[in-house]
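Fold it.
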Amino acid sequence: MKQFVKKQWSNIIFVILIILLLNPSSKEWFIKTISFSPSLDSKVVAVQNASWELKGLNTDNINLADFSGKVVFVNFWATWCPPCRAEMPAIQNLYDAYKNEVVFLFVTNESLVKVEPFLKKYNYDLPVYNSLTRIPLELNTTNSIPATYIINKKGDIVLNKTGAANWDSSKSFQMIDALLSE
């Protein structure tokens, strides 16, 4: 009888975990909880063709080539993506801290009709873009989102992170500070 009760409890806990993981807000919380701070890659890759035109959904149109000599944070994301949604509050904090020093490009294939209500609902003011021209090959290394790339002032990709990350950590801030001081 004791064995039966123990097995029942493990089944109940298993069902509760499954339900929690199927619930979008629980899934986002879980992803956020297990996300780590990103770190610079040991192997840097130069962006060969930085001429990449982007249509601003809530900001002006830009071209990546215009930001030579600046640190650039590129994040590919979507409103429907739980890992993307999980890392957004931390990214907003990073953006708030560095928006005057770092170029932030949040790239999606969704329209303003989808993006605008999402940004409003969560009070995000991130600059969001659609790609107008072909994405540079070095920034197109995965089909997964979120995918984040950080480009240093020399035009080298020094971070290539697929999946959610904790962008609101002291390690992330130190990394950006170091890149800005180069």
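DSSP finds five helices and eight strands in the chain.
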